[in-house]
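so my prof wants the structure for this chain in the tokens format not the other one, which i didnt know existed until like an hour ago. anyway here's the sequence
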Amino acid sequence: MIHAVVFDLGEVLASPPSLLPDLARRLGVEEEALSMRYWDGRVGYDAGCPAIDYWGPILEDLGVEPTDALVEEIAGLDAAGWTELRSTARQLLRDVRGSGVSVAVLTNSPHAMQKAADAAAWRREVNHLFVSATVGMTKPDPDLYRHVAARLGLDPQQIAYIDDNPANVAAAVELGWRGHVFTTDAATRVWLVGLGVL
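here's what i got, hopefully its the right format
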């Protein structure tokens, strides 16, 4: 029986179409130029490196001076953008929690995400929030899934996990979690119904 459903955040609960346009507008650069660099170094950023180590090279390449104040602002805007949940995704969170099952979010995200997510309106609908930079491990490290299971106080087979990255899902399944590769909110709902969660 499933006692907890763990959701990824980016592209599973949140897929903000205005994120890059808004960041590019704030920086006064072309969106395409920013999008070409956006994911460079993101693994290290999500693992907990300082924001300046990630944003500094990107801003310099874009011809923007990476002042401490600007880096802090852009890091905050970026994280806040990823906390804007789709309405259908947020309803899934509510429905899962309403069924009596614990709800968790496990995200590969930088330190700025911890602050942004903790301040988000949906945070009260989530029992547990795990941000990779805060924890000090990133998916698909098996130790991260073990850490989450221990914090949830559950056996692996009692946890259902939803992520858009097949490698992340495979790592969880290898440890005994029930896993679903996200495509749409509707497909996720069908899967959760099949598990008896909804």
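also thought this was worth mentioning. The mean pLDDT is 97.
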